[in-house]
Design brief:
Number of helices: 3
CATH topology: Nuclear Transport Factor 2, Chain: A
Strand order of the largest sheet: 2-1-6-5-4-3
Structural class: alpha+beta
Low-confidence stretches: none
Number of domains: 1
CATH architecture: Roll
Strand content: over 45%
Radius of gyration: 13 Å
Distance between the termini: 30 Å
Order of helices and strands: HHEEHEEEE
CATH class: Alpha Beta
Length: 118
Amino acid sequence: MQQVKTAIAAFVKAGDNRDTAVLEQILHSDFQNIQDGFFDEEGIFVFSKADYIELIRREKFGGSPRSIDFHSIQQTGNIAAVQVKLESQYLIFYSLIVCVHDNGHWKIINNTPTIKAV
């Protein structure tokens, strides 16, 4: 489970630092970010790995350090579902993050955040 936590911490830190090179490595090729709302727009938004990295690159996402509070980790074989609370000075993210063990490494395949202003 520590390796899962390490992968999630790398994912969060890469977003906070807008480090797209790390995101290229830690995100699974089939990664999806699914969220309800996108800034002032309502609705369900699904972002692929390429979309997500581009949002980081264009500074629409990321850039603020966040603390990580792991609420639960449930691992079955090569899949782990993790509930976390991520908090910056601006936003709080209650996220379900799904990781898969792929080629000897834990990678993020899904991030489903609920986002609230502080």
